[in-house]
Amino acid sequence: MLVVALQNLVAYSVNMLDNIMLGSYSQNALSGAATVNQIFFIVNQLALSIGNALVAICSQYWGKQETGAIRKMTGVALALSVLIGAIVVTACTCIPEQLLRIFTTSPEIIAEGKAYLGLLKWTFLLFMISNLLIAMLRSVETVKISFVISVVSLITLIFGHFGFPEMGIQGAAVGTLTARMLELLIIVVYIWKIDTKVRLFDINLFRTIFLPENRKIWGAFFKVAFPIMCSGMIWAISVPMQTAMLGHLSADAIAANSVSSTFFQYLKVIVIAISSASAVVIGKDIGEGDIERVKSDGRTLSVIDVLIGIVLASLLFVLRGPLLSMYKLTDTAAVLANHFIMIMSVVMVGMSYQMPVSVGVIQGGGDTRFSMYMNMISTWGIVMPLSFLAAFVWKLPVELVVVAVQSDQLFKGIPVFLRFRSYKWIHKLT
To answer: Within 13 A of 261's CA, how many CA atoms are on the CB side?
Structure first.
């Protein structure tokens, strides 16, 4: 968990560095990159969904020490990742303006976005492949290499910054593309020459992927992956819409939300790491066939989740003053940001329980449909309508709109708890 958290933290810092570099260059460049990043956000969710599905299956095979099955499943997941990456790159090549117009109508921002997307689109494909290979290694409890890769990416971007001012927004794209190419090179060399657990290249990947007798493997993988991908897309589409709702309220609300979200996201990487680690622990237990151990570890992990959530919430609450002092905000924006962080502190406790238990324990235990149904109902049946009514019909104070937007992180804890205690989420996928 600690290594994955550090990796996520460094990866998030890579994105932050890109924003700082572009923000120091021009506002249009920053906005253009932010628009392109909306496309990457969706690609990122697809990549994470395929990776999570692979971890759910392969961690169970790892518990049974069946590395041959892990190789075959990875081949199928790799083919799917390459296919999706290629489709996205093709779309970004053929209809870049149309894609960018979904998020903005400004000609200046679209022009900067096109320049950025021209090179950055190739990183989408590279990221899909790298993330999938890292997920495969995580399923067999190999995580240190992913941290090394993230550090290399950060160093590459820092050194790339020196040539950035002369090249403009394309310079930032060159730096990111170089970092992604290095990431893929390192992970491929590691799996090819150093890895002793899976030995992915010991099989003919082409034959594994395309032979007719391997259709059962495709079917088994899609049965697990499809609900996870749907769940990820349901959430990915809702996030920009929720941000847009707050953006229509006031300039101070936009600034306050931007500042408070930055601190919240930094701590959220720890929650995501708990989810990743929990999925491997539970999957391995199920693969070993010790169901009582699965239940026991699940209970222990859920208690750890709540305790970590309380620690993270306390940190966010106590440090809000010093953190906000780093920004130059209007008096109104500063007050709103302070209130937002207080709200996020409470949200952090709920999220630290429901996300690791639903994504790590329940989904990692093989029950992939529960999260899909829960996200579909909570996001589109409750949160989105409630947020819209709070913002535009009832015209409630901005703080209450934020409560409405983040409310699912609290009330989802009830169905998650009930599902967890039923133990019906324990599914053998192998």
So the answer is: 15
Q: Tell me the C-alpha to C-alpha distance, in Å, between residue 60 and each of 72, 354, 364.
A: 14, 22, 9
- 266-282 burial, b at 16+ Cβ within 10 Å, e below that, comes to bbbbbbbbbbbbbbbbb
According to DSSP H, which parts of 1-26 are helical?
Answer: 2-25
Q: What is the 3-class SS of 216-230, one letter each residue?
A: HHHHHHHHHHHHHHH
Amino acid code (one letter) for 290: D
Which residues have CB under 8 Å from 322's CB, separation 6+?
none
76-79 long-range contacts (CB < 8 A, ≥24 apart) are 76/208, 76/209, 76/214, 76/217, 76/218, 76/221, 77/50, 77/51, 77/53, 77/132, 77/135, 77/136, 77/221, 77/225, 78/129, 78/132, 78/133, 78/205, 78/209, 79/209
Do 361 and 425 form a contact (C-beta atoms < 8 A)?
yes
Amino acid at 178: T
Q: What is the pTM of this model?
A: 0.83
- For each of the chain's 430 residues, which pLDDT tens digit applies? 888 888 778 777 766 666 666 655 566 676 677 778 778 888 888 898 899 999 999 999 999 998 888 888 898 899 899 999 999 999 999 998 888 887 777 788 788 888 888 888 998 999 999 999 999 999 998 888 888 888 887 787 766 655 555 566 777 778 788 888 998 999 999 998 888 888 887 766 666 666 766 778 888 888 888 898 888 888 777 777 776 676 667 767 777 877 787 788 888 889 989 999 999 999 999 999 889 999 999 999 999 999 999 999 999 999 888 888 877 778 888 898 899 999 999 999 999 999 999 999 999 898 989 988 998 899 888 988 998 898 888 888 888 988 998 898 899 999 999 999 999 999 888 8
DSSP state of 161: G
User: Phi/psi at 428 (nearest 5 deg)?
Assistant: -85, 120
Neighbours of 385 (CB within 10 A): 12
The first and second tokens of residue 156, run together, are 């590459």
